[in-house]
Amino acid sequence: MLELKHISYSVREGDGELGILNDISLTIDDHKLVVFTGPNGGGKTTLAKVIMGLVTPTSGQILWNGRDITELGITERARLGISYGFQQPPRFKGLTVRDLLTLASGDQKLSKDKCCQYLTKVGLCANDYLDREVDVSLSGGEVKRIEIASILARNAELMIFDEPEAGIDLWSFARLTETFEQIHATAKATMIIISHQERIISLADEVIVVGDGAIRHRGTASEILPQILADTLGTCPVLTHKEVKAQ
Ligand SMILES: Nc1ncnc2c1ncn2[C@@H]1O[C@H](COP(=O)(O)OP(=O)(O)OP(=O)(O)O)[C@@H](O)[C@H]1O
Ligand SMILES: [Mg+2]
After folding, report:
1. What is the pLDDT of residues 47-63, one digit of tens each?
2. Which of 8, 9, 40, 46 to mutate to test the pocket of ligand 1 (most atoms within 8 A of CB)?
3. How far apart are the C-alpha atoms of 107 and 149, rounded to whole Å?
4. Which atom, in ligand 1's list, is nearest to the CA of 11?
5. Residue predicted with more confidence, 106 or 241
6. What is the rounded distance in angstroms from the CA atom of residue 64 to the CA atom of residue 186?
7. pLDDT per position as a tens digit, 129-158
8. Is residue 11 lining ligand 1, measured as CB closer than 6 Å?
9. Dihedrals phi, psi of 152, to nearest 5 degrees
């Protein structure tokens, strides 16, 4: 179980402080699939990085399986079974896709078949990619999918995916949502997926809308999706204007 207690994060801005996350508390039970969604700049990635240990909160506490991990670094959290896939994954010159999957799995003798299974889940063919370097020669969508495959290979207890849909074609996206559904159905891991995609939101046990650094709404997909659509219309002056004109 993951528990966030009164998490705040602020950065210095000029003479003052800029609040990025403001007093966020939430609990995520084991094997749940939770989607964080909400407007750009709302604080979703920062919250994910706080959970992974990439950002240290200004105040608050994080508990993982009852243990206080607030002071632990990324490596220790990874050892405790937490993994995070970047919104914009880094590239590693000199490291092949096979190396990355081998490192992630912790199995020095990871077979080609196993690599192929992970890559197939994100719509890639092992024959084409295993010996490629994870460098700038890969397209944005390819590097994103390879990183997701490496999280699957890590087989962590808590998997955090930051906008897995970004830059991914429709066919691969369909494979990916199937993979999320399978992991969820077999209760193999707890998943936090940051997403703006209705298809992913509809898979969630719980949807948490993060805006202005706070939890704006939370509920089931069927409760939250209509609210999101209503908010979208309400805040776009062009759409609202068109609606008025159409009446
Ligand atoms: N170190 C920092 N210094 C200043 N501002 C920051 C810092 N880190 C994050 N922010 C700001 O905090 C806000 C939240 O950023 P974050 O990346 O968490 O948003 P997000 O919800 O993931 O957005 P998106 O949907 O665009 O990915 C943004 O306005 C961002 O510019
Ligand atoms: Mg983000």
Report:
1. 999 999 999 999 999 99
2. 46
3. 15
4. 3
5. 106
6. 21
7. 999 999 999 999 999 999 999 999 998 999
8. yes
9. -65, -40
How far apart, in whole angstroms, are the C-alpha atoms of residue 58 and residue 20? 10
46, 10 contact by CB (below 8 A): no
Q: Ligand 1 mean position to 212 CA, how many Å?
A: 10
49 in ligand 1 pocket by Cβ < 6 Å? no
The verdict on the CB of residue 57 being under 6 Å from ligand 1 is no
User: Cα of 45 to ligand 2 centre, how many Å?
Assistant: 4
**Burial (CB count <10 Å: 0-12, 13-18, 19+), residue 192:** buried
Those residues with Cβ within 8 angstroms of residue 233's Cβ, 6 or more apart along the chain or in another chain = 239, 240, 243
Distance 187 CA to ligand 1 centre (A): 31
Secondary structure (3-state) at 73: coil
Q: What is the pTM of this model?
A: 0.91
d(CA 94, ligand 1 centre) in Å: 30
**Assigned token pair, 88:** 């914009």
Going by alpha carbons, the residue nearest to atom 31 of ligand 1 is 41
Chain-centroid distance of CA 207 in Å reads 13
Residue 87 in contact with ligand 1 by CB distance below 6 A:
yes
- pLDDT category, 226, cuts 50, 70, 90? confident
